[in-house]
Amino acid sequence: MPFSLPNQCPLQPVQLPWVTEAGCQLAMLRLDQLHPQVSGNKWFKLQPYIEQMQREGKRGLISLGGPHSNHLHALAGAAALGGFSVVALMRGPAQDTPTVNDLQQQGVTLHWLTREAYRQRQHAAFVAQWQQQYPDYVWVPEGGDGVLGQQGAGQIMPLLEASLAALDWAGCDALFTAVGTGTTWLGMQAQSKTPVWGLLAVPRHYLAATLRAEPQLVDAHRQGFGRVDDELLSFVNAFQCATGIPLDPVYTGKALMALRQMLRAGKFARGSRLVFIHTGGLQGTRATPNWPRLDEVAA
């Protein structure tokens, strides 16, 4: 495979009134800048599955997602880099979206499933059926979830530790990441001595039952997964203009709004050093026509 996990990543200070008023320092780990397509946390979650595929001499990976899936978009990019094949099980009905167009242009084999069929994705019989149809492909759970995905996400921690020196920080007091499946949060938490807060982009009932009562998971979904409102648009527009950092409507935008609320509520002691993990997902902004964009947001 022609790429491996990076050993450094920009850690960008974020200086905004709501951070200063809380007496804290905030920096953002710019995982979104690691690669134009395999960006954010996706690189880390996919790496162990790619390594399994290589060890077993398999032809490719099979996974699943929706018509705007950041996970599948990154997987297609990784396949283009690594020279392997991808099969994508898509949540139907079939749609013509920028993400789907990218998958098709990169040679991904698509299977559109009914919503009823897609709901069976976590059942063993569903997985077995597709593994039988594609025996030469390694199964990757939705979003890169699973033990391997968590192990990969845990490798964000050494990268963060190496990046702290650029700010002359010996360490930090709390970490924050947006949460969809919980894979990244679980992986980071397992490798971190610093508290890791998960900012939920999904309602709690979307999570595995074992995660729903976790006290360090904070609701951030704003009345539903993927829903955009005027307050979110206003917040993101102001943030992007002030910092030059692009955000997405599903994960990072909402997660930062939740972090602002935590700071305003006095959740962290004055003088705290906080790090927010930018998990990428910027290609998904194309699904929201009125989303405020910066020139650096990749198509």
UniProtKB/TrEMBL annotation:
Cofactor(s) this protein cannot do without: pyridoxal 5'-phosphate
GO MF term set: D-cysteine desulfhydrase activity
Active site: 69 (nucleophile)
Family in the record: Belongs to the ACC deaminase/D-cysteine desulfhydrase family.
InterPro entries listed in its UniProt record: ACCD_DCysDesulf (IPR027278), TrpB-like_PALP (IPR001926), TrpB-like_PALP_sf (IPR036052)
Entry keyword set: Pyridoxal phosphate
Pfam families: PALP
Protein name, per record: 1-aminocyclopropane-1-carboxylate deaminase
Gene3D superfamilies: 3.40.50.1100
Organism for this UniProt entry: Atopomonas hussainii
Ranges where the Tryptophan synthase beta chain-like PALP domain occurs: 15-280
Sites bearing N6-(pyridoxal phosphate)lysine, chain numbering: 42
